[in-house]
TrEMBL record:
This is F-box domain-containing protein. Keywords: Coiled coil. Residues 11-74 form a coiled coil. Gene3D superfamilies: Ribonuclease Inhibitor. InterPro entries: LRR_dom_sf. It comes from the Eukaryota.
């Protein structure tokens, strides 16, 4: 009843406004355009007063019409009909995103939230009342000229001298006040940090930020092996509050075997992280037999490991046992020689939805035999093989483990991303029980088993279109020749007649390719012709870093987003 009464009142108020607007239009139309009024010397004071009154009335009318224009936008603009809570969610998405520095450059910077306060009065009010929008900051040494327009949160150090200091400008303090009780996101860059007296100053700054009401709940740590002590002390300061932790660790240039490592898996997994939900580790060693017992990660939902060369599969499995019940997304990237466990033991991941494995083919073979993921919807395997005497290694063990993994997990896959694998691997996927639910396929690579990968895949998919009835997205990671593009076009065309006749086969709606590898003019023209035919059949076509906009019929820069099943997004600060 309350909603009905509000609608009646709103309609009555609109009717009154419409009547007043009509009266205003009638009155304004009755006023003729003013001719040029010149102040002549012989005119008297009464005439001057009349002219001044006209000027004043015109200024008042301009001000009123500006107010009318603002009220019209507030009343009729679609964006003004969004609830403040929804507008806040959009602002939060923007504040954690990356934007291009230049429309034609593939270089990105973090979004500046000040832009949100310059659109209109309502946006400014909502933005200032959204504390988390202002909660991202950087601490890093500055080696160049500081541009505050690029990142208002940057805390400058000196130029690397002994007189290291942390500079806080007025904008920094304003942003800190606006963040109120929101948890802070901290980008801590130790790559160019001077060793002198910077240690205590830096940790004091992190400690001071950690005492804020919301604490530090997002930490992106960029460091070197020579800065391990400072990094470990910083981690201790955020251990109780951090929810998203990303550590990018680089080497000082010496061989990995010659370096001493204060930071490794023991220093992280043997401690309690009561709120940690997302963990990303780059170049962190994980021992097979940890000297200290590991503490379970009871709330971890995303784990991304780019492990150190000395890590074995036993070390990785020790970590996976800490979070297998809650993990929803698992990414493992490795380039080491795996030592297989003596007794392969299947670990159940009941909530795992995305699995991405990058590494040598025998690495992936070992890892697949330990994972059971019945809820998996996105599978990404990107193996690369080690050639021996110019010969490709035997792919039979990998294919056997892949087939067993899909069959035993009994998962309903939606996205499959496989590169650098033979056609027989795709055959295992297409003939599995997961095939009917697959919506997106990513493929590509070099020649494997004397077969061009993507051409062989499309030939395989065309043999039985009904097996992949829900497929509507193709993504290729290789440049295409006209022959390969023609093969893709024929595959797209083969699905449309079935869909139009009512068969339960979806048409291909989205295609992403890496562009053409043609050099001859005739070949380039043929590639352009085929791409034009593709745009008439599908909804979205992306070539490299640009996409074809069908309404304007122009190519524009692709910045991610959309309703792609395989997210073609740019990386953010906290992934």
């Amino acid at each position: 009843m309350t909603e009905d009464r509000d609608c009646i009142i709103h309609a009555a108020q609109l009717q009154e406004a419409v009547d007043a607007a009509r009266l205003l239009v009638d009155k304004l139309s009755a006023v003729p355009p003013r001719r040029s009024i010149r102040s002549l010397l012989h005119q008297n004071d009464d005439h001057h007063m009349t002219v001044q009154a006209i000027y004043d009335l015109e200024d008042t009318m301009k001000s009123l019409l500006r107010n009318v224009n603002e009220l019209r936008n507030r009343l009729l603009s679609p964006s003004t009909r969004l609830h403040d809570e929804l507008l806040q969610e959009i602002f939060l998405y923007c504040s954690n995103s990356m934007v291009r520095r230049h429309p034609h450059q593939h270089a990105w910077k973090q979004f500046d939230p000040v832009i949100l306060t310059s659109v209109c009065r309502r946006w400014r009010t909502v933005a200032l009342n959204t504390a988390a929008v202002w909660a991202n900051l950087n601490i890093e040494p500055s080696s160049g000229v500081y541009d505050p327009s690029e990142n208002p949160w940057r805390v400058l150090s000196g130029d690397g001298d002994v007189d290291f200091h942390i500079h806080r400008d007025d904008r920094y303090r304003v942003f800190l006040e606006r963040s109120k009780q929101a948890g802070l996101g901290l980008n801590l860059n130790l790559l160019n940090l001077p060793i002198s007296n910077s240690h205590q100053l830096l940790t004091d700054e992190v400690r001071q930020l950690g005492t804020k009401c919301g604490g530090i709940d997002r930490l992106y740590l960029q460091t070197l092996t020579s800065r391990d002590e400072i990094a470990l002390e910083s981690l201790k300061l955020v251990q109780q509050t951090v929810r998203y932790l990303k550590i990018m660790r680089g080497s000082t240039g010496r061989s990995p075997a010659a370096e001493t490592h204060a930071m490794n898996g023991d220093s992280i997994f043997s401690n309690e992280w009561p709120r940690l939900q997302s963990l990303s580790l780059h170049a962190i060693g994980i021992p097979s037999r940890p000297p200290l017992p590991y503490v379970p990660l009871r709330h971890l939902r995303k784990l991304d490991l780019f492990v150190y060369p000395t890590t074995t599969d036993a070390g990785i499995l020790n970590v996976l046992q800490l979070c297998n019940k809650t993990l929803e997304e698992l990414v493992i990237q490795c380039s080491w020689s795996v030592e297989g466990s003596s007794v392969p033991q299947m670990t159940r991941f009941p909530r795992l939805q995305r699995l991405k494995l990058n590494g040598y083919r025998h690495n992936l073979t070992v890892l697949l035999q330990h994972i059971w993921a019945p809820s998996l919807t996105k599978l990404e395997l990107h193996p690369y093989a080690i050639q021996t005497d110019g010969q490709q290694p035997d792919s039979t063990p990998f294919l056997a483990k892949l087939s067993k993994f899909v069959q035993e997990s009994q998962c309903r896959l939606e996205v499959v991303s496989l590169t650098e694998i033979p056609r027989s691997a795709w055959k295992e996927i297409v003939e599995s029980t997961a095939a009917p639910t697959i919506c997106s396929v990513l493929y590509g690579g070099s020649r494997v088993d004397d077969l061009v990968l993507h051409q062989g895949l499309l030939d395989l998919l065309k043999t039985d279109l009904h097996r992949l009835a829900n497929l509507e997205e193709l993504i290729s990671t290789e440049p295409q020749s006209s022959l390969q593009l023609q093969n893709m076009l024929e595959f797209v065309q083969s699905r449309h007649p079935l869909h139009n006749r009512g068969a339960p086969v979806k048409p291909i709606r989205r295609v992403s390719i890496q562009g053409r590898q043609a050099e001859a003019a005739e070949e380039r023209r043929e590639c352009v012709r085929i791409q034009k035919e593709l745009t008439e059949l599908i909804e979205h076509l992306i070539v490299g870093q640009v996409r074809f906009d069908k309404p304007s019929k122009q190519w524009i820069v692709f910045e991610g987003g959309g309703d792609w099943h395989y997210k073609l997004d740019i990386p953010g600060m906290y992934e």
